[in-house]
Amino acid sequence: MSNAKISRLVRLPAGPVDLTALDSHAKPGFKGGKAAGRAALAGMGSELADLQERLWAEGTVGSARRILLVLQGMDTSGKGGVLRHTVGLVDPQGVRITSFKAPTEEELQHDFLWRIEKAVPQPGFLGVFDRSHYEDVLIVKVHEWADAAEIERRYDAINDFEQRLVDEGTVIIKCMLHVGPATQRERLQERLDNPDKHWKFNSGDIDERVLWPAYRAAYEVALERTNTDVAPWHVIPSDRKWYRNLAVAHLLRDALRAMDLQWPEADFDVDEQKKRLADEAPLI
Amino acid sequence: MSNAKISRLVRLPAGPVDLTALDSHAKPGFKGGKAAGRAALAGMGSELADLQERLWAEGTVGSARRILLVLQGMDTSGKGGVLRHTVGLVDPQGVRITSFKAPTEEELQHDFLWRIEKAVPQPGFLGVFDRSHYEDVLIVKVHEWADAAEIERRYDAINDFEQRLVDEGTVIIKCMLHVGPATQRERLQERLDNPDKHWKFNSGDIDERVLWPAYRAAYEVALERTNTDVAPWHVIPSDRKWYRNLAVAHLLRDALRAMDLQWPEADFDVDEQKKRLADEAPLI
Predict the structure, then answer these.
(1) Which residues of A fall within a CB distance of 8 Å from B265?
(2) How far apart are the C-alpha atoms of A252 and B86, rounded to whole Å?
(3) A121 in helix, strand or coil?
(4) Residue A199 is nearest to which of B200, B264, B281, comparing CB atoms?
(5) Mutate which of A75, A96, A276, A279 to disrupt the B interface (most B C-beta within 10 Å)?
(6) Distance between A170 CA and the closest CA of chain B, angstroms
(7) Which of A253, B25, B178, B219 lies 20 to 30 Å from A133 when distance is taken between CA atoms?
(8) Contact between chains at B206 and A280 (C-beta distance less than 8 A)
(9) A179-228 pLDDT, tens per residue?
(10) Do A264 and B196 touch (CB under 8 A)?
């Protein structure tokens, strides 16, 4: 099976979602193991950097196109790892990462999309949401911080919002980093066992963990309801960190390739500028 | 000569500045050539990433410390290259790059530091200014968009501003990427000769280039007036791209090392959390 098919294989099919039926330890579309996977990711670096620079270049001459990569997943699913290892492959100048934490008092006084709107990427950028507007139908639903009618309203609001972003020239790549509860347990245990990682742990992590079945149910509904043609979901098996990083890189690369990005043509007279440079007087 | 001395060697001494006396083609503190320089930079990646993560970790537990890297230089001096090759070595999650373009109408209605204030890094971040408040005493002075008294006021305002940032916990690393006019000419010529690089060129570039002596004079005064103990300038010989990238990496690494960053201690009872994880009921 060709690795070129990874993007297609991780795409969530339409219809009801059963996350327990999706193997979080799988590596769809990739035959090799960790070493081969890491090498494959490193091997994508120069193409990714080239494509991202073309996107950036387009943005400098008036194109409206941009990419929004949405990363969702339970604690320890590896959103930070994807930022470091996959997003880290391209020029940081063209990347805008927004990490959404608990909303501030001011943010809570607005519609849930208010703070999201302010973070959408500008033309030419690769915007990355580390958590996103989906928290407003996940943690909010699990804790019943909004009633059922409001959650219901939000699925449609999200679809309308994403449709508008796409209409404006945004390519949206939505990734749910899918870990199993046993993997999360291992990773939390590692954080507790290693004093250098204690800062990554907080005592609320286990409070949320025991709500796992409620989170799973909330994810399943949210994924189904917002798995649109213009902004489909990808469920990335994430028990293997290297596969997770590689799969997101494939999605990013394939999205950039599909944009058919060209270097912008000169908007000035090239020969005239060459002549100016050739004819100039000494400068110092 | 040990490479560990690069940071010290590129530091601008106090007193009047004569940029023509500083060799833009030099590689102070580094014996090897391009291949060795690139290898040395790559070899710094893991330490830089580790130190940056410690800075980030500190920020999550209430430390006010942060870094601001200021990149100034003439067109083609390589601010973008430093972002890609040096800043690109650390986790993009902890980096906040601001590229300052010509001020907007709104920005022009405020003091020159208004837009700068909004971009200063938050605790734990490595903030990078690609151009900066120094444009307000460089291009503005060269084009006489402000009178002499206003420029004079700005040097002091900049020093006060930077002192305040330092008092708040910011380590400021100021770099002037020093290229010679012949190197700029080569790089502009390359952009004109290669259609894939035409987008990087604009016809104003040569208009600015012919003002080189005026820019040099403006830089010399600005560097002298703002070369403070709390926020000193470094003049990075930048005719060799690999040396430029390596020297900025040394400054960044040495600044991070000097912060003596420790992994934060747990603010929770580790054994209690381990017990909770060990005792939990099955989740699915």
Answers:
(1) 195, 198
(2) 23
(3) coil
(4) B264
(5) A276
(6) 21
(7) A253
(8) yes
(9) 999 999 999 999 999 999 999 998 889 999 999 999 999 999 999 999 99
(10) no
% of chain A exceeding 90 in pLDDT: 95
A50, containing H or E segment: helix A45-60
* Token pair belonging to B144: 């006489």
Question: Tell me, what's the pLDDT at A1?
Answer: 42
pLDDT of residue B1: 42
CA angle, residues A101, A105, A111, in degrees to nearest 5: 80
For the ranges A1-15, A28-42, A106-120, B115-129, the lowest mean pLDDT is seen at: A1-15
- For chain A, what's the residue count? 284
Are residues A93 and B97, on separate chains, in Cβ contact within 8 Å?
yes
What does the block give as tokens for B33? 């050539």
Contact partners, residue B206, CB within 8 Å, separation at least 6: A273, A276, A277, A280, B188
Identity of residue A31: K
Asked if B20 lies within 8 A of A91 by C-beta distance, the reply is: no
Our CA-based measurement puts residue B76 at a distance from the nearest CA of chain A, in whole angstroms, of: 15
Bin B236: left if φ > 0, else alpha if -120 < ψ < 50, else beta.
beta
Over chain B (284 residues), what is each successive 10-residue block's mean pLDDT?
78 98 97 97 97 97 97 97 97 96 96 98 98 98 97 98 98 98 96 96 91 97 98 98 98 98 95 93 74
Mean local confidence (pLDDT), A250-255: 98
Distance, in Å, from the CA atom of A54 to the CA atom of A57, rounded to the nearest integer, reads: 5
Beta strands in chain B (DSSP E): 66-73, 95-99, 126-130, 170-178, 233-237
Q: Which of B97, B195, B202 sits opposite A268 (nearest CB)?
A: B202
Cβ distance A99 to B87 less than 8 Å, yes or no, reads no
Find all residues with CB under 8 Å of B207, minimum gap 6, and list them: none
3-class state of residue B205 by DSSP? helix
CB pair distance less than 8 Å for B93 and A91: no
Q: How far apart are CA A114 and CA A133, in angstroms?
A: 10
Instruction: Name the pLDDT band for A13 (thresholds 50, 70, 90).
Output: very high
B274–A192 C-beta distance less than 8 A: yes
Q: Which two tokens stand for residue A178?
A: 């899918």
The DSSP bridge partners found for residue A171 are: A67
Q: How many helices (H) and strands (E) does chain B have?
A: 13, 5
Q: What are phi and psi of B173, to 5 degrees?
A: -120, 110
pLDDT score for B222: 98
Contact between A222 and A137 under an 8 Å Cβ cutoff? The reply is yes
Which whole-number Å values give the CA distances from A118 to A129, B102, B143, B182, in the listed order?
12, 22, 35, 43
Q: How far apart are CA A81 and CA A241, in angstroms?
A: 8
Q: CA–CA separation, A39 vs A61, rounded Å?
A: 35
Q: Which amino acid is at B50?
A: D
Answer whether B211's CB lies under 8 Å from B142's CB: yes
* ipTM of the complex model: 0.93
Do B195 and A83 count as a contact with CB atoms less than 8 A apart? no
Cα Dmax for chain B: 74
Residue B92 distance to chain A (closest CA, Å) = 6
Nearest to A206 by CA among B263, B53, B270: B270
